[in-house]
Amino acid sequence: PKYSEKPLADVLKKTFTELDKLGDLKRKLFILTYDVTGRRTVMLRSYDERKEFQDLPVWEAVKASCSAPAYLPAHVLTM
Fold first, then answer.
1. Which residues contact residue 57 at a Cβ distance below 8 angstroms, ignoring those fewer than 6 apart?
2. Burial, 20: exposed, middle or buried (Cβ in 10 Å; 0-12, 13-18, 19+)?
3. Nearby residues of 61 by Cβ (< 8 Å), 6 or more positions away
4. What are phi and psi for residue 41, nearest 5 degrees?
């Protein structure tokens, strides 16, 4: 990657704390990202009935959608 991920991660962590989880949001949020290993899109929803990503920190969901292999390193979700 051309750029470091640290500045973006730092800003996202300041904007969304570690305690801000997708499942805790009061508004519906949909974030689309891509799994490079599985070669598939991943839909991160705050309102997912399966509760699959409800404990995912919001900053991580946003960072995962911002990653672009040529510019920023891929973000591996901590789930």
1. 16, 18, 20, 21, 22, 78
2. middle
3. 22, 31, 33, 44, 53
4. -80, 150
pLDDT in tens, the chain (79 residues): 888 989 999 999 999 987 899 999 999 999 999 888 889 999 999 998 888 899 999 999 999 998 777 888 888 887 6
Using CA atoms, how far residue 13 sits from 20, 41, 49, in Å, is 10, 24, 26
3-state helix, strand and coil shares in percent for the chain, rounded to the nearest 5:
30, 20, 55
Whose tokens are 């920023």? That residue is 72
- pTM for this predicted structure: 0.83
